[in-house]
Amino acid sequence: MEETHLSQLGRDVRGFDSPEAAVVERVPNPHKGETYLVRFTAPEFTSLCPVTGQPDFAHLVIDYVPGEWLVESKSLKLYLASFRNHGAFHEDCTVAIGKRLVAELAPQWLRIGGYWYPRGGIPIDVFWQTGPAPEGLWLPDQGVAPYRGRG
Asked: In the chain, is it the N or the C terminus that has fewer CB atoms within a 10 Å radius of its CB?
């Protein structure tokens, strides 16, 4: 297995002021060549509305099939937390996260579902993926029910 330099794991890291400043780290995939799914769920993702500055909340589900690399989970957590003071629309946040992970990891396949809680009475769900899922991949439903309000 290749050696990797991890600057955040096992260290006190206070976080990042912006997604651009956040460091997404990776580790070698011990099962290169296998087709398997890795899922990260962030049920309390937060960003800011770029117009009002009010907080927006989402339940993110990130599924990917690793290539040579796995994302180091602490760095992913810190990257997602860097959106807390970042102003961007739901669509931009969701797609930008997917693209950043693709750029850092070069996975075989990746999809992200952003299930945003309502603002102004309208929930917005945003989905992005790199293409068709690999053949033979067991791909479970993301498990987030459509928004039903009180009903």
From this structure: C
Where does the pLDDT of residue 11 fall: very low under 50, low under 70, confident under 90, or very high at 90 and above? low
Q: Residues annotated as binding site?
A: 71-73, 90-91
Sign of CA dihedral 102, 105, 109, 113: negative
Determine contact, residues 46/56, Cβ cutoff 8 Å. yes
Domains and CATH numbers, the chain: 26-129 (3.30.1130.10)
- 63-100, pLDDT tens digit by residue? 999 999 999 999 999 999 999 999 999 999 999 999 99
Residues recognised as catalytic: 49, 56
Bind-site residues for substrate = 71-73, 90-91
Given a contact cutoff of 8 angstroms between Cβ atoms, the answer to whether 90 and 124 are in contact is yes
Tokens of 36: 């398997």
